[in-house]
Amino acid sequence: MIFESIPILEKMKEFYALPRDRKRFDTYLKLMLNDTKEDVELPIAAYNPMGKELVIRKLNELIELEAEVLLENEVLEINKKHSINDGRKIKVAISIVDDMEGAWSNKWVTDYKSKFDFDSLLKRNFCLPTFWSSETLSKEKVSNRVKSYLYRTLYWIDHGKPETLQEHINQELYVESMQEELPQKSLGSDFVRFMKGELNKNHLSTNYGYIVNFFYGDEACASLNYTTHGFEENAGFKFLKSLL
Questions:
Q1: 229 near 210, Cβ under 8 Å?
Q2: Beta strand residue intervals within 45-108, DSSP E
Q3: pLDDT in tens, the chain (244 residues)
Q4: Are the beta carbons of 10 and 64 closer than 8 angstroms?
Q5: Which of 63, 127, 199, 235 is most solvent-facing, going by the fewest CB within 10 Å?
Q6: Residue 125 carries which DSSP code?
Q7: DSSP class of residue 97?
């Protein structure tokens, strides 16, 4: 198994230059689907076909950062370390989700699926590092984001979809362990104590709402009408730092 980078940004920039009408949507379907229209050829399902100028600006930002050169570098590096000669190729392409102006997807659900529930993508041999229209990017952030999705894919191939809270933690600990060291704010002792207590009580939980709450916080869960348990924003991802 090897990873293969798929350039997509210039093609999507040309696509978003089209007028926002039915023809644009038809073009989107033609780009995405194979000749039989029965499966995905180009992995652009997360792109909002009716996206506005903000998506174009994000595309330009990624192009200026040479994001696909950075992606190719990470792909080459991981292939050196982890390639298996079994004939399988997993195509890697940058995915942009508009969480500012589009109603195409819910940010928290989309982020969760991109990290913890991407079996349908892997069956099609896709790996899609996800970026948001709202975020400020840098070359370092692009490289680390790509790397994290590559290592999630490797972890899935060996372990499959995480079901329990502990399995979610184990996956992300593996991903974090493969990242470059980045400066982190120190975590308060009360926060760490609270999170450890929740993990100890619920490490075998398979409750989707609770797991989303644990990782993404109360605000995300409240927006989805799930029960909240006092977690701050991105609590679970912050907490991982204390477990490394």
A1: yes
A2: 89-92, 95-97
A3: 999 999 999 999 999 999 999 999 999 999 999 877 778 889 998 898 988 889 999 999 999 999 999 999 999 999 999 988 888 999 999 999 988 866 556 789 999 999 999 999 999 999 999 999 999 999 999 999 999 999 999 999 999 999 999 999 999 999 999 986 555 667 899 999 999 999 999 999 999 999 999 999 999 999 899 999 999 999 999 999 899 8
A4: no
A5: 63
A6: T
A7: E
Q: Is 242 helix (H, G, I), strand (E, B) or coil?
A: helix
| Angle, helix 165-177 to helix 139-159, in steps of 10 degrees | 130
Are 139 and 111 in a shared domain?
yes
Question: In the numeric block, which tokens belong to residue 48?
Answer: 């909002």
What's the total number of domains in the chain?
Answer: 2
Asked whether the beta carbons of 127 and 3 are under 8 A apart, the reply is yes
Instruction: Find the domain containing 146 and state its range.
Output: 2-161
Distance CA 91, CA 2 (A): 9
Three-class SS of residue 151?
Answer: helix
Dist CA 167 CA 153 (whole Å): 15
